[in-house]
């Protein structure tokens, strides 16, 4: 009866949290002006473009290049393209706007359940405390603000607790237990792989390190329950598997970014470690970080909006930890046996502290430090590292949950405190000032209309012209919806693609002009050969070169969303082979796990 009552309370609390989460989010899809976040001006056209490819070819041919943007540009080699992701797959069933809303709902629920399971299985907290922690994670500002503004690449952040759960899963001894651990490890590797393929490449190291920190904290607090050696073996194997599964994607990204690095943007950093720590505090707990950030940062090549500094957990977890510390101090000395120090614990604590210092050091300015960071892979192509603050979100929630669980009060009192904490988190989110998000001005109307026109068969996906957004004086109009010209069969030459710079500083125009894509001039067509962006040497061209007149059949196929022949480098062929082999291994191992399970059941 008690178990049934707990289940009813758990279900009721979860449903209540999700309902409030829904009403906290849905007013921005669209907002009070009927618009979406500005960065959906990049993402919704990408989703529509991916649907065009699927409509023409299905899912199987790798989507290497798109004719819809920049007169022809890479897709598979683009680090923030998300063709292989849940939001893109959902467009095969519904329009891009509905796909985004559904993605937000699905990953919100996954994050909530994942953190609940993590707290229960990894840290053995009570149901009420686990719900409190799950609610905090559900409403974290990193996920919510980026989904509001259009950074759908980061929806996979909500899978972080699931990755940790899989790596901390306890299995029975024996052969079957080892097979189950193998399956858990592969599943964790698949989650990391999904993070990369869904467009989170720029913050993937932060996501992976977050998983490591969460698991190390669990090992630190529960050394009697979890094996450090087994965990590290699983973690490293999962990362290695993810690298193998992503080898083709990583190689293509390397080829592309090697020719279009974003090293010309200096990293915005804070003037001293005190300012950085203050920024972390404000970003996590106060919700008033934007003015502080912009006034204390050195090097701001472009203005950073408030969404970049929103990691909001509200002050609730800070209050919980502070209250628990005060209560503990009032109880007298701590039991030394229970918290006995060991060399292993000391080493784990040191590693956790070192990893948690990484976002601080990345965002603190020192002479020459920022210049050196712009030589480090991944970071050198980043325009800021503030997003690495997301590493603190699960850690702060863990601290709050453990602090609440360890407070020596009755279970009923703890349940009341957890409910009050969750209610406070929800209330603060529901009453927060969201004027910035209501001022966003991207209209999804043309993208949604074009989607339904193609889906119904009224229009065929194709690009027939190069378009140019200019004002009455002939100057470039950097409007946020300029990529929407694809809905009129035009590829925008002044495209919205930050890889080439926010104002296309590094984009090789090479004579591209408004007009028909198959119009010839000086032996070249008016459409770029996108293979030249990624594999110029293999295809005998330079980055930004156009299709030659003798390649008109290839150009025609490209503009009709059909595959066309091109050559790849030797490194890319090797990477493709590694990815193919890794996929085969995954299917083989999962097949063996299922077979072992079948044999076990048949014996019993």
UniProtKB/TrEMBL annotation:
Would I find Membrane among this entry's keywords? yes
Q: Where are the transmembrane segments?
A: 7-29, 97-118, 125-143, 149-169, 176-197, 203-221, 233-257, 309-327, 347-366, 386-404, 416-437, 574-595
Keyword Magnesium set for record: no
Keywords associated with the record:
Membrane, Transmembrane, Transmembrane helix
Name of the protein described by the UniProt record: YfhO family protein
